[in-house]
Amino acid sequence: MQNFNSNDLKFTYSPLHNAIGEVNSGELFTVETEDCFTGKFRDSENFSSETLAWVLENLDGVTGPIAVRGAKVGDVVAITLHEIEITTPGSVALSPCDDPSPSDWWSQWYGCKSFQIKNGFLHFSKEIKIPVSPLIGCIATAPDRETVLSKMQGPYGGNMDCTEMRAGSTTLLPIAVPGAMIYFGDAKAIMGDGEIVQAPEIGTKITVSVELRPKPKAMNCPRVESKETLTTVVSDTTLDRAIGKAFAELLSWIEDDYDISRVDAALLLAMIAKTGVCQTANALHTGKCSVKRSALFGLRLSEPTLKT
Fold first, then answer.
1. Nearest-angstrom CA–CA distance, 104 and 97
2. DSSP letters spanning the chain
3. pLDDT for the residue numbered 50
4. What is the pLDDT of residues 157-166, one digit of tens each?
5. Beta-carbon count within 10 A of 249 CB
6. Per-residue pLDDT averaged across 272-295, rounded?
7. Does residue 42 contact residue 219 with C-beta atoms inside 8 Å?
8. Nearest residue to 208 via CA among 174, 153, 166
9. Tens of pLDDT along 175-227?
10. How far is CA 261 from CA 156, 231, 255, 267, in A?
11. Which structural domains are found in the chain, ordered by start?
12. Closest to 288 in 3D by CA, of 303, 276, 270, 298
């Protein structure tokens, strides 16, 4: 099995990067990721103005890009996370969180600490142990005409911090350059919705496979599939716009995949869909909209459209 290590982190998503390796559709492989601080904040003694300045300039280093053999522009790559192994303690930067605006708490960092993770639990204190539920915060394909910081997000994926992107899920991303060129990083041991205050950042070794698929005609944003749910993920300048667009994207998904009119699909989702917050910590806020597959059991799948 191929393994891709984190020795050559990238801090951008770019069509100019050379691939660190290549995989086949359906191949199982592993990827090692660093935490978003590149390990600089695992030791509280290491916190200094110089270290902080470096971290702020180099947030969210990602492993990649990994090319997918045969990936063609205009299709999508379905990225399945089979297993997420936590390989480091959970590190956080500390803030007094006393500014009137929580969005400014991120600029108040004064120190760092790490939490032990053992036997599936994060040891918050002597009294409190929290079950971990690791997610991969950054999953991306290379954009076609621009280079963007890895801490950013958009139609190509990126720093979405979506809690649905955990083991057992499949993330669908557009292919904008030959080979797709996929990146992974910024994993969390566990995270509450919104990432108002930083979650414990971890290094991981993830087991992954990819599948090439035709691009659904209505797909304009990342999608996440699991056995239980279908989820759309959208980033925009405001959270209400992101969540509204995520609902619209899910509506188009259901309209295309099931034998139901758009009007009826909208009414149905208004009753059963769940909107949520992925993160509000970045310049673009990320929202999501999900529906349980079980709620769609009464609908018939649409007949596939034959290509001419």
1. 8
2. -EEE-SSS-BSEE-TTPPPSEEE-TT-EEEEEE--TTTTTTSSGGG--HHHHHHHHHS-S-EEEEEEETT--TTSEEEEEEEEEEE-S-EEEEE----SSSGGGGGGG--EEEEE-EETTEEE-SSS-EEE---EEEEEEE--SS--EETT-EETTEEE---TT-BTT-EEEEE--STT--EEEEEEES---TB-SSPPPEE-EEEEEEEEEEPPPTT--S-EEE-SSEEEEEEEESSHHHHHHHHHHHHHHHHHHHBS--HHHHHHHHHHH-EEEEEE-SSSSEEEEEEEEGGGGTTSPBPPPPPP-
3. 95
4. 999 999 999 9
5. 22
6. 95
7. no
8. 166
9. 999 999 999 999 999 999 999 998 999 999 999 999 999 999 899 999 999 99
10. 29, 20, 6, 10
11. 2-215 (2.60.120.580), 218-308 (3.10.28.20)
12. 276
How many whole angstroms from its chain centre is CA 207? Answer: 15
Residue with tokens 């698929």: 213
Both structure tokens of 294: 């079980």
Token duo for residue 166: 């955990």
Q: What are phi and psi of 65, to 5 degrees?
A: -80, 150
- The answer to whether 62 touches 90, Cβ cutoff 8 Å, is no
Q: Which two tokens stand for residue 7?
A: 């020795």
By the 8 A CB rule, do 155 and 147 touch? no
Q: Is the per-residue pLDDT at 88 higher than 60? A: yes
